[in-house]
Amino acid sequence: MRHLLPKMIFTASFFILIGCKKNEKAEIVKAENAKNSIEYATGLSIVKYEDYSVVTVSNPWPNANKDFKYILKEKDAKVPDSLQTYTTVQVPLNSVVVTSTTNIPFLEMLEVESKLVGFPHTDYISSEKTRALIDKGSVKNVGQNEKLNIEQLIELSPDLIVTFGVDNNNPMLDNLKKSGLKVLIQGDWMEQSPLGKAEWIKLYGALFGKEDQAKELFDKIVESYNQAKKLVADKPATSKVLYGSMYEDVWYVAKGNSWVAQFMQDAKSNYLWADLKGTGSEGLSFEKVLDKAKTANIWIASGSFKSLDELQKANPHYGEFDAFKNKSVYNFEGKLGATGGTVYYELAPSRPDLVLKDYIKIFHPDLLASYEFTFASKLN
């Protein structure tokens, strides 16, 4: 019996080793079959495995020095040891705090707005549906983005706080984590592709166990956006477009690779600063803008102006532009919610197809004769 013992140990070890090899091979096959479900967004990756998903948020703010990885796991799911160091969030969420109005439409589209328990400065929210929840007391005001009320958040004890940063120095984020609160950084605001911004709905689909619904909703937006582009595919870009307005002593124009410029390009217009490289905006003097855009036939003015008179009161020199003289001035920020929140800032990132249709109606009104603006208004 004694001489058989080493053989028995060897045999047992051999089969254990084979079993481990098979399990490792199975895990490798599963990993190889898992794919990132994100197509347009550059700052988001979601890879779904059998019991969990790995979410990676990259470039959440300008010059970010690291990526953020999160593990979304269902109850009792087994997560590999190699992923244990990352923030783990149990899904589906039962409660959430978000800190940007751009997140509100995602929650409503997925029909999980009732899971929202807190938001900073609730007056910014314009949606009637979520405003009803605020009025009922279901959504608490948790302070300001840069100074969230941590004591109140601890009391609310949400499953997750979805927030954002603006640079590599975020003491508020550190304080939230030190208080034991689960925090997920998102960077939808950094996306420059219209469809890239909208695709962040898939993050909320993953958080609330509604991946299929999120994909279906996003696919419909993509289809609607591309159908709108087809309307102008063969149209010449005849509209010469001025964008922006003065802020104090500076006129900010959208750069050529920005979110706004992409809409104007897709709507087939001749945006006068389309060749200005970069994202975001560029500050110019009034004289430089007037020199380049005096004869522009359409002006997309920034700000919440309601009329040409109100616009000219802000700066009497606006009357020097031909677009102003010809009453061809449009504005996307004039429609406000009940407490002053801007509808465009809240809804536009999640519905780029509607933004594009507004631009097409401005530049090619004959193509969408019966279409009514969602965001834009013509100043009279």
Describe the structure.
With 380 residues, the chain is of the alpha/beta class. The protein has helices spanning 5-33, 103-109, 128-136, 150-156, 171-178, 194-198, 201-207, 211-231, 259-266, 286-293, 308-314, 322-325, 343-347, 352-363; strands at residues 44-48, 52-57, 68-73, 87-90, 96-98, 116-119, 140-141, 143-144, 147-148, 160-163, 183-185, 240-243, 246-247, 250-254, 270-271, 281-284, 298-301, 329-331, 377-378. β5 (96-98), α2 and β6 form a beta-alpha-beta unit. α8 packs parallel to α14. Mean pLDDT is 92; it is low at 8-18 and 20-29.
How many E strands? 19
The N- and C-terminal alpha carbons lie at a distance of 102 Å
Number of helices: 14
Beta-strand share of residues: 15-25%
> Which structural category do the helix and sheet elements fall into?
alpha/beta
Question: What's the main sheet like?
Answer: 5 strands, parallel
Radius of gyration: 26 Å
Oligomer: single chain
Mean pLDDT over the residues = 92
Helical proportion, percent range: 25-40%
- Largest sheet, spatial ordering of strands: 7-6-5-10-11
Any low-confidence stretches, pLDDT <50, length ≥5? 8-18, 20-29
Topology:
Blueprint: H1 5-33, E1 44-48, E2 52-57, E3 68-73, E4 87-90, E5 96-98, H2 103-109, E6 116-119, H3 128-136, E7 140-141, E8 143-144, E9 147-148, H4 150-156, E10 160-163, H5 171-178, E11 183-185, H6 194-198, H7 201-207, H8 211-231, E12 240-243, E13 246-247, E14 250-254, H9 259-266, E15 270-271, E16 281-284, H10 286-293, E17 298-301, H11 308-314, H12 322-325, E18 329-331, H13 343-347, H14 352-363, E19 377-378
Parallel strand pairs: 3-4, 5-6, 5-10, 6-7, 10-11, 12-15, 12-17, 17-18
Antiparallel strand pairs: 1-2, 2-3, 8-9, 13-14, 14-16, 18-19
